[in-house]
Structure prediction request, 237 residues.
Amino acid sequence: MLRSRVIIRYFRYSLEINSISDLNDYLLEYFSTNITDSEKFKRTLSVLTITEKGLSIAEIFQLTGLNITEWNHLVAIFKTYMMKYKGLWKINNEPFKKTITTKYLQDNQYCLKLHAEVADVLQKTPNSIRKLEEQTYHLFMSKSYFKLKESIANIENFLLLFNPNNKYDLCRYWQVLETKGFDPATEYNKSFEGFELHYRPDAEDTFTIILQISRFLKEFSDFETEYTPEFRHPPIK
Prediction:
């Protein structure tokens, strides 16, 4: 914050910069063509803004077409606004995110397409809880509801997501999916039948899976809406 105030004072004599927002606008305008071409610049800052958990450099390069030299220049200029944790990058400075959102992310179709492309790139990333959290978030934000349903109805993915940190998001996703005609009890019933046929889990694993699904459906009942069926669901086999 102090560094930004000093920069503002420096530029006041020659530019119309009177706030952090003005400074952020100026930085985006000036560097949009001085690091790489303007579209790559816009796309890079946009994906770093919309990411939930952060993206790896490899994922960023696939999404934006940046090369390592361009990336290093961008980091040198904007590192103050970024956060890096366990190799994952994102913009975490709220005033800067607000400026990027205002300048680059006002077109709804552009945002939907960008979220969908992030989800597609993550499909090529090795499986992990971070990948699953990030990918389901972008499927939700891109309104790719069938793909989202396929992901969270998968038994292995469900077992990873149904935890104290993620179960609210899981309920939130299913709440929207219900409005699109997808019933969680029906979907998990079908998914478990396929899982059982493919993996042949023993009695203990079967009990654990059914227990977790039952616990989720019990908790999800707190989110009942007009789209929740009135009839009692059949038991999960």
Remarks:
- The longest helix spans residues 203-220.
- The two ends are 58 Å apart (CA to CA).
